[in-house]
């Protein structure tokens, strides 16, 4: 039978979210019902609420989640009732052209649940990133469930479902940082801080953190930054940028082997582009808005060499990466728990959006 649970819904563009009853249907053949234990409050949820992604309201928010498998569909083989899982929004199909080329991290036909959750009046809900986890239980495709060590704190584990994996993967997977290389990360939200931690894990010898917030710059040292650049009073774009000059000063005048733009606005993009050494690698993991344009002289693009790559979900493979980083955390080798800034209830999500915008947290986590 379907069940009715409490959840957080964005009914219309830019309006405060509401706590309301949500109908969770019985699972289809390949669907799974997950009892949510914790879910992080991500910038993407705020973007859905504000209508910055699409206008398919109402949205059921929440996607950085972990929980316990409560019920499975008749054809499910991937997980079993009682498994502790982290939810992911790229359940690969195995059949599209990317999967068949051996690049499942770029799967173009990812799976979601076969049935929609609704309001009590039957209005279908659009789940954030195909998950929707600010509620007591949700329905997802079995491929969206990644089993991890049940000894992990649910609040920490769930953060691998989106932002932390995006930044961590940008450093480890997309940039492929090598031991001894130098790295500069621009923007120190949860994603940027995860990129700092990933660079340290990969063995980078110099990790430069760049941000306008002095508090976040201090936090970055705890995650592995060896140097910081306070860009709040540094202006300029392009090759003459004072920020670029500071990064080069810290690297013998050359720039870093790798730069990571974890903001996605053109000033930070240009700073990351020009802060590279010749033939350096740049990764863009910050998500730009729909009107942003990249503007650099073509000769600079050509003349500096190297590579420029976007990072989709940190180029991760959930089945490989989620269990690995949970285990590394439990071994004391990756600071996953440090990303949990505060633990809140469902009623506190709207307030958490305001806290997020103020820059006072890396992640607020809803515990159920």
Automatic annotation (TrEMBL):
Keyword presence, Cytoplasm? no
InterPro entries reported for this sequence: ADH-like_C, ADH-like_N, ADH_Zn_CS, ER, GroES-like_sf, MycoS_dep_FDH, NAD(P)-bd_dom_sf
> What molecular function terms (GO) are annotated for this protein?
S-(hydroxymethyl)glutathione dehydrogenase [NAD(P)+] activity; zinc ion binding
Q: Which domain of life is it from?
A: Bacteria
- Mention any one GO cellular component term assigned to this protein in its UniProt record: cytosol
One example of a Gene Ontology biological process annotation: formaldehyde catabolic process
Q: Which UniProt keywords apply?
A: Metal-binding, NAD, Oxidoreductase, Zinc
Q: Which cofactor does it need?
A: Zn(2+)
- SMART domains under this entry? PKS_ER
Query: Residue limits of the Enoyl reductase (ER) domain?
Result: 19-366
Q: Where is the signal peptide?
A: none
Q: Does the keyword Oxidoreductase apply?
A: yes
In which family does this protein belong, per the annotation?
Belongs to the zinc-containing alcohol dehydrogenase family.
NCBIfam families attached to this UniProt entry: mycoS_dep_FDH
Provide the protein name: Enoyl reductase (ER) domain-containing protein
């Amino acid at each position: 039978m379907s069940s009715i649970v409490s959840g957080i819904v964005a009914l219309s563009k830019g309006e405060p979210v509401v706590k309301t009853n949500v109908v969770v249907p019985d699972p289809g053949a390949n669907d799974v019902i997950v009892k949510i234990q914790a879910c992080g409050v991500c910038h993407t949820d705020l973007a859905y609420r504000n209508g910055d992604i699409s206008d398919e309201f109402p949205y059921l928010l929440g996607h950085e989640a972990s929980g316990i498998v409560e019920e499975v569909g008749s054809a499910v083989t991937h997980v079993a009732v009682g498994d502790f899982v982290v939810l992911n929004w790229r359940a690969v199909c195995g059949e599209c052209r990317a999967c068949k080329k051996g690049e499942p991290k770029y799967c173009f036909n990812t799976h979601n649940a076969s049935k929609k959750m609704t309001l009590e009046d039957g209005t279908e809900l659009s789940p954030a990133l195909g998950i929707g986890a600010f509620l007591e239980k949700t329905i997802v495709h079995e491929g969206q469930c990644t089993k991890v060590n049940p000894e992990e704190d649910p609040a920490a584990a769930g953060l691998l479902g989106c932002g932390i994996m995006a930044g961590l993967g940008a450093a480890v997977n997309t940039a492929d940082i090598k031991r001894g290389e130098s790295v500069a990360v621009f923007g120190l939200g949860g994603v940027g801080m995860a990129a700092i931690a990933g660079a340290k894990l990969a063995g980078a010898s110099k990790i430069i953190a760049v941000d306008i917030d002095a508090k976040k710059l201090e936090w970055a040292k705890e995650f592995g930054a060896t140097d910081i650049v306070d860009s709040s009073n540094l202006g300029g774009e392009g090759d003459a940028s004072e920020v670029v000059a500071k990064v080069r000063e810290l690297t013998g005048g050359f720039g870093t082997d790798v730069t990571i733009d974890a903001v996605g606005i053109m000033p930070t993009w240009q700073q990351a582009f020009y802060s590279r050494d010749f033939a350096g690698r740049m990764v863009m993991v910050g998500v730009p808005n729909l009107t942003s344009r990249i503007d650099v002289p073509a000769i600079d693009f050509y003349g500096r060499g190297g590579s420029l790559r976007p990072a989709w979900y940190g180029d991760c493979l959930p089945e490989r990466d989620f269990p690995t980083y949970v285990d590394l955390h439990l071994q004391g080798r990756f600071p996953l728990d440090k990303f949990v800034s505060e633990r809140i209830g469902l009623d506190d999500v709207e307030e958490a959006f305001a806290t997020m915008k103020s820059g006072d947290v890396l992640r607020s986590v809803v515990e159920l």
